[in-house]
Amino acid sequence: MDTSMWLALVCIAIGTYLLRLLPYIWMKRNLAKKQAEDGIDAMPTWLTILGPTMIAAMFGTSLVPAHSDMFSWLATGVGILITLGVWTRTRSMGLPILCGVVAFGMITLFFVL
Amino acid sequence: MSTTTQTLAGTSWKEGVKDAIPLLGGYIPVAISFGLISVQSGFSVVETILISAFIYAGASQFLFVAMAASGAPLWLVVIMTLLINARHIVYGPNLSPYLNHDKKWLPLMHGLTDQIFALAHARLPQLPEHARIGWYTGAAMLAWLSWIAGTALGAIAGGELTQRWPLINDILPFALPALFFVLIVPRCNNRLWTLTIALSAVTAIILKMLGYPNVAIPLAAMSGAVLFYTLKNQRLLGGH
């Protein structure tokens, strides 16, 4: 890489870090200030809603299979149903994910092989 | 409860590592792909690893490598990659009520990816305050190191790996939607949140399938938030 490419890399790395850091510092100061003033929770309501909806959106984008054919969607559907079934019984995190991946893999292998 | 709290205090980072293990299924195959594509685009192995270590944001790394290899102006490369990462703006503020004033949180923000945010947003409120930094450090370090290791593997032996085990790239990434699902499904405990989450997820699927993967997450999240407010206001008006 030449110098200008390194410079671009450094700019992106610092910029990405600041995108993660600065809003956190801003909210931390805002919370401290509001709590010192009147003791109420200063967390804006829209932020508390946007957190879960961002996770739901990440779920949606990650759900779309790389090859968008019928069998991939079938494997995806079965994988999610198995994940839900195991989660409903165990209310844990690791086992439902493992079972979901195994179910997804078995359906994928069944139709690929 | 106090026993649980004391146990977590000593082993919180191990809990973080354990909770982040499902991330590896999604991180490593994608990191291998990135390593392979980066080397094929003309970057050296060391440069490829440094990109993963310091930018540490999947979609923007792929874009950086693709745009740089195509000879796009570097100022445009910087702007486009940062625009993709703009969604990260809401992550820190959402977690801040659960984080104390320890200065160690500042460098740890480098590890605040989509997946770590989702995991931390669900797990931090369940942990005692003193155990949170240890838990986050364990989870974020495992994710970061697996991303770097996967990139190195892809840069050095990615071609051979994907030829020998082509299904790795097809099966293991399913761990990511399964993880997000397990993190978000407990929120669906009433009609308002169930509809909000369903709309966000469906909008994201549609936008991604239409070919807009980078705007899918912020736009889908905003559509869900709009629905939430609309339904809540209707309920309030109906109550009067």
From TrEMBL, chain A:
Q: Where are the transmembrane segments?
A: 6-26, 46-64, 70-87, 94-112
Source taxon at top rank: Bacteria
Which InterPro entries did the record assign? Brnchd-chn_aa_trnsp_AzlD (IPR008407)
**Would the keyword Hydrolase turn up in this protein's UniProt record?**
no
Q: Identify the keywords attached in UniProt to this record, alphabetized.
A: Membrane, Transmembrane, Transmembrane helix
Q: What is this protein called?
A: AzlD domain-containing protein
TrEMBL record, chain B:
- Identify its membrane topology class: Multi-pass membrane protein
Question: Per UniProt, which keywords does this protein have?
Answer: Cell membrane, Membrane, Transmembrane, Transmembrane helix, Transport
What the entry lists under InterPro entries is as follows:
Brnchd-chn_aa_trnsp_permease
Task: Please tell me whether the keyword Repeat is annotated for this protein.
Answer: no
Q: Does the keyword section mention Transmembrane helix?
A: yes
List all membrane-crossing ranges. Answer: 27-55, 62-85, 134-159, 165-185, 215-231
* Record localization: Cell membrane
Q: Which family does it belong to?
A: Belongs to the AzlC family.
What protein does this entry describe? AzlC family ABC transporter permease
Give the organism, scientific name.
Marinomonas phaeophyticola
Lineage at the top is: Bacteria, Pseudomonadati, Pseudomonadota, Gammaproteobacteria, Oceanospirillales
